[in-house]
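Researcher: Checking consistency across runs. Here is Type I restriction enzyme endonuclease subunit again:
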Amino acid sequence: MKYTEAQLEQAFISLLETEGYQYIDGKQLQRSSNQEVLIKEDLRAFLLKRYPDLEEIELESLVNELAFQSASDLYESNKYICKLLADGFIFKRNNPSKKDLHIRFIDIKDISKNSFKIVNQLEIQGTELRIPDLILYINGIPVVVFEFKTAIEEEITIHDAYKQLTIRYRRDIPELMKYNVFCVISDGVNNKSGTVFSPYEFYYGWNKITGDEKKALTGIETTTSIVHGMLNQKRLVDIIHHFVLFPDTSKNELKILARYPQYYAANKLYQNILKHRKPEGDGKGGTYFGATGCGKSYTMLYLSRLLMRSTDFASPTIIIISDRTDLDDQLSKDFTNAKDFIGDENIINIESRADLRSRLRGRESGGVFLTTVQKFAEDAEILSDRTNIICISDEAHRSQVNLDLKVKIDDEKGVTKSYGFAKYLHDSLPNATYVGFTGTPIDKTLEVFGDVVDQYTMFESVNDEITVRLVYEGRAAKVNLDYNKVQEIENYYENAAAEGASEYHVEASQKAIAKMEVVLGDSDRIKAIAKDFIEHYEGRLQENATVAGKVMFVCASRGIAYKLYQELLALRPEWGDIKLADGLTDKEQKEIKPIERVKMIMTRNKDDEKELWDLLGNKDERKELDRQFKQIKSNFKIAIVVDMWLTGFDVPFLDTIYIDKPLQTHNLIQTISRVNRKYEGKDRGLVVDYIGIKKNLNKALGMFNNQTADDDFEDIAQAEVIVRDQLDLLRQFFHQFDSSAYFKGLPVERLQCLNKASELVLKTEESEKLFVNITKKLKSAYNLVSGSELFTYKEVEEIHFYFAVSSIVRKLTKGEAPDTAQMNAKVAKLVEEAIISEGVEEIFKLDDNKANTIDLFNDKFIEKISNLELPNTKIKILERLLKQTINDFKKVNKVKGQDFSERLQSIINRYNERSEGDILDYEGIQFDTAEQMIELIIKLRAEMDSFQDLGIDYEEKAFYDILDMICKQYGFEFDNDKMLELAREIKKIVDNTAKYPDWNDRDDIKAQLKMDIIVKLHEFGYPPITQEDVYKNVLEQAENFKKNR
């Protein structure tokens, strides 16, 4: 028995009932109309119970505060309503003698005072009638919408559920979605949540119930975790209250729903700070260990809101401390654009220690200040001795935990003492409570901030699809590196790290630089690296194996970086040309500047030669480079870096990093994490190693993730195995197919071979699915190895043959343009020629033209289709064009359009469901199917012209067909001439109604429309039993006309 969407829906209802939700069948819900989505009686009951002295007019005003919010700008209305649900608002009483009320629509303190209901299959009329699978209500407010899909049909996925919510429901029933806090999509195996504004990639699972489980749940178990975890009543109210973030301003409808690791971490840290705050506690608020890229900055924001909104802390002052010399720009932007969310207008970047002192002086509470740890070394005076100061350390490691005394003995200067930055920080704010956020905790982190309160490893982040898996490719052997000499440099780095020095201070050691320049900066080695890098990079570009061609190259020193830059330009001088990327819109041309392909990202040094000085630019110019690199279409593709951009620099579409620098522990994890961010079309991040970091990588992953590189990384060799496995499967698939003409034949023979291969794939629905799935896996793995030399020329040609066939199949079945992202330029051109050679492209040009539908079905057009030689190809084209044309016809005549849609589906089903015995007459079945489709075209053309024979216009014909259909449904006869006249009269009634632009949003006008139709039906003697059906169908058709005229 199939596990259907309805059964999944019932499973969710049963689970939610165990959480205390009351279930109501949507068909039984009492409403004034099916346009109403609030359960107003529940909302009124809650408000009266919480505020018993409300006057009736005040009660209605509060209900209308939600109900009358316009949904025309869905983002702004949703932002406003979500804020009302989270924070409430001040309500001025009708009677001036009564105190203002702080109104909350949800009781956040006593959960039992709220009404929790789930309603399934509720019909909601907007511009279209939509029926969400399940809606979760709190106090009559629809805060969560569920959409289910079955897991057993391969072609249907939760992505279809996502599109239903974020496209159809958003477009057609915004009145529901304006209240929506978040959505849940599920097929029973995959269960994810996100907002109506979130890209699909940012829908995530809720894979723990309490947050204390050692292992996250997976697969079908996540149905339980999302219900008992996220949708537990207390937790759901907490999420609505504290864990839905709208920035103060957003150009791209940003709404951020906390993921489960962020939710649990923020709450655990809050409780730990409460327990350890001074003066009663030790001031060690705890350490949060979270994988780089898992969203720690948002966890800080959620924690800051919890602290600032808490009565326990009496509006604390929060100081966010970064470990970088320059304040983290992204962290700063996130916080300064979240004043409303945190609940404090004073969120300020601190320029200096004196600036911080002046802002803290006389302040007893409030304020969020962002600064760097280095500013605390400027003097030793106490900044504040208050106890309600919370210091949150971003990337707490080394300089922020170094409390030790250092003694230096110099023959000239004598003995000098110094302390780490952390000592000065703690002396400046002696009674503060300190919290550490880090992706790489060490023992000293725990000494300063306290034990790890919660953790989320790189391994977990990848498994939860929050970050992408990384792939390691070693290429050190190609550049003649002496490993004994590299070990000397590594020893220096280890010593420097032990002393708590940042790379900036490592670079200050001229002795170390000189040694490094000799080994890593050898001219022959740099030439070899430049040559290999170009081959690797351009190979990946040619194979379209990279999202945007953006890469970062990490060098060991400024001098080496400059040598590499010069060598790259010597080999590719055009990379130094200032160019604007092709194909930019007018808007993009204002944002994206002409720029070189390769740039160095380093600060200037006072001893730099003039050319280097000019190349590096000043601070403002570096900020512009930052902005341009983050533009996906910018010509700036290759960033050569030493230290900058290795932490806190997020470019989601950056998918490749080249490393030629000895890196240890924390810095290594931070560096490779530049390529682990999610982005559409990005399956993996690639780490290319020119120096031999694998040993250190294993060590770092073992320290911070309890994993090894083999656990957290895919080696390039693993990708090679996948490619070879998929190649073997494809060879079996085509084992009886002669593809020699593609590889050895003349151009025309190659084109014919591609089209015949596509025809083989399309032989059955199963063969098509199998082929598409194999080539998808092949492409994903091949992207990772395309820059290597693991495959022979012959094998690469074979791979691209399969990609070419795949692209033609998608063109035929889905109407997509040839997918050049799946093939190199040479093969892409061949695919386009193959489509043209078969006569397919000319037909698709007609299709894409979207001209008058009837013109698509003239005799000449039908003849072109009939002349296509490949039968499976012909059937796929006919199917797709018929579907599109019938969908267009539905906009004009819904009844007849639906009739033709069912006829077409019947033909398709018969073709797809043919038995094995039918294979003997396979050609006959193909011929019959194509003939039936062409016959349907002719009938559709006749139907579209039929209004002329009846002496009515095409709109009147739509109403005539409604009347005729209902006659047949109810089994009664009605005079045809009278029916034609009645159709004309209904058209007049509808036209009279449509003179009001907002008629379909007004219940009074629709009520009048219904009455006018009933009266007219009575005048013509049309049976009364049909009145409701006639009205419903006429209303739908009238709304169709309104949308499509």
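Researcher: Does this match what you'd expect to see?
Model: One thing to look at in this run: Residues 550 and 637 are 4 Å apart (CA to CA).
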